[in-house]
Amino acid sequence: MSEFSSQAPSANHVAIIMDGNGRWAQSRGRPRLFGHHAGAKRIREILESCPELGVKYLTIFAFSTENWKRTQEEVAGLMTLFRRYIIRESQSLKESGVRVRFIGDRTRLETTLVDLMDELELMTCENDLVHLTIAINYGGRDEVARATRRLAYDVKSGRLSPKDIDEETLPKYLDTLVLPDPDLLIRTSGEARISNFLLWQAAYSEYDFVDTLWPDFTREMFAQALERYRKRTRKFGGVLI
Ligand code: IPE
Ligand code: IPE
Ligand code: MG
Question: 196 CB under 6 A from ligand 2?
């Protein structure tokens, strides 16, 4: 390890596009939902490794606004999986100091799921060890559209003046409100695209595309991605002197 890499700070906020569950299952001759179950099980190990790896914020993409295009069977199976995941993991998340938040448009989700999401957010609201954000029915474009709608209402009602709308004001209307921007965005499964994730927030994130399918992604691979991140040079449009 070079002197530089050992001293470079870790990524404070890591966002992950957990992709490849379907292919993982299909390669085993199993239904896609089998892969989603295996994928959900991976989250715990990655989350638990965050404190030692210096990651304070972990944001994971669980279901996109485009994922409704999948079969009714897969969508329903995923919604059941989300409910079960919350029920099964709630207590352990609370006890291990994880603060959970959800981003995305909740209006299209079933009330039973939304109630569980609200409850988990409330249950963990005093935790501060790791901040886990789960994106369900999330789309970056949808988020910006919803933010713009709320912003327009504030302008209409006189609470906000158009001249005050700038790069500081707009993110206050986004779902990620209190979260810092992601430093590192990892996508598994070999696809090198963002698929509508965190469009505004990831403007200056470092991207890491790994070939491993999400259900095979381990703590060691996560640590390696963070090590690669520490070797990157972030310039934010400036010039290093
Ligand atoms: C990611 O895995 C999980 C969700 C989108 C819900 P995929 O289901 O996209 O898996 P692949 O890309 O088809 O292998
Ligand atoms: C992105 O993966 C969404 C999630 C991981 C939840 P997709 O599999 O839906 O993205 P595309 O279709 O390959 O772009
Ligand atoms: Mg996919």
Answer: no
Q: Give the DSSP letter of residue 232.
A: S
Average pLDDT estimate for 164-171: 97
Pairwise pLDDT comparison (241 vs 31), residue with the higher score: 31
Q: Which residues are catalytic?
A: 19, 67
Rounded Cα distance between 93 and 87, Å, is 11
Q: Is the pLDDT of residue 3 over 60?
A: no
pTM summary value: 0.96
Ligand 1 pocket, residues with Cβ under 6 angstroms = 18-23, 63, 67, 78, 189
Tokens representing 90 are: 């709630």
Q: Given ligand 2 and candidates 32, 67, 142, 213, which is best to mutate, with the most ligand atoms within 8 Å of its CB?
A: 67
Question: CATH number of 10-234: 3.30.70.20, 3.30.420.10, 3.40.1180.10, 2.60.120.20?
Answer: 3.40.1180.10
Please report, for the chain, the start and end positions of each structural domain, with discontinuous segments joined by +: 10-234
